[in-house]
Amino acid sequence: MVYLSSFWLQWGMVCSVFASMFAQDSSWDCTDTDDILRDVPADVNMPSQCTLDCTARTYRAILKLHNRLTIRFKDSHAGDTDEFCWSSKIQCSPDQRLQSAFILLPVDSSGANRETLILEMNGATLHQHLDVSLLPPECGLRFEVTDRLAAKGPLCVKIPAQEQGTLGSGLVCPPFLVTTWEKCNQG
């Protein structure tokens, strides 16, 4: 029993160190207290309908699984020429560890084959994440960006010209970012 307590204490310390490292990196803002009720600033933009719909679907899935995760949804803003961007300031709490991050591309599912659709990020190609996920397929096409969140500067993606033709008028809403967080001290 002492060994188990020691393990959780060490794990909690490791998570705290990682959280403070990310907070010092300025790419992370690990000061969020995750209060359920709080005042909403007057200048907050309303999330897109796609983001709201995906939020509701995702939390229904989480409740069914009795999973204890924090999931944050963030709409994109316009970047340079046809880019969709997110701030490099990723919100987190000190007692949380990033589990995954996805960019979701909400598309009309009745259109052409979307399985080969790609995104570009800083000249690199992002392929769709087709594995099973907590995020319902109705939320859109998923592109994993977990390992790219620590980079300095904004996170921006572009739909390549050849993909825009494949996509046609199938983009329902601008892409949005979804991050999932686990509590470090779930003992």
Structural notes for this entry:
The structure is a single chain. The chain is an alpha+beta fold and 187 residues long. The chain has one domain. It is built from three helices and eleven strands, in the order αβαβββββββββαβ. The longest helix is centred in the first third of the chain and has 23 residues, at 2-24. The model is unreliable at 1-26 (pLDDT under 50).
Order of helices and strands: HEHEEEEEEEEEHE
How much strand? 25-35%
Oligomeric description of these chains: single chain
The count of helical stretches stands at 3
Pairing-aware structural class of the strands and helices? alpha+beta
- Return Rg in Å: 18 Å
What is the average of the pLDDT values? 75
Any low-confidence stretches, pLDDT <50, length ≥5? Answer: 1-26
Strand order of the largest sheet: 2-11-6-9
List the domain count as a whole number: 1
Gross geometry:
globular
Straight-line N-to-C gap: 13 Å
User: Level of helix content?
Assistant: 25-40%
Number of strands: 11
Major beta-sheet overview: 4 strands, antiparallel
Name a few traits of the molecule.
single chain, 4-stranded antiparallel sheet, Secreted protein, 3-stranded antiparallel sheet, alpha+beta, 187 residues
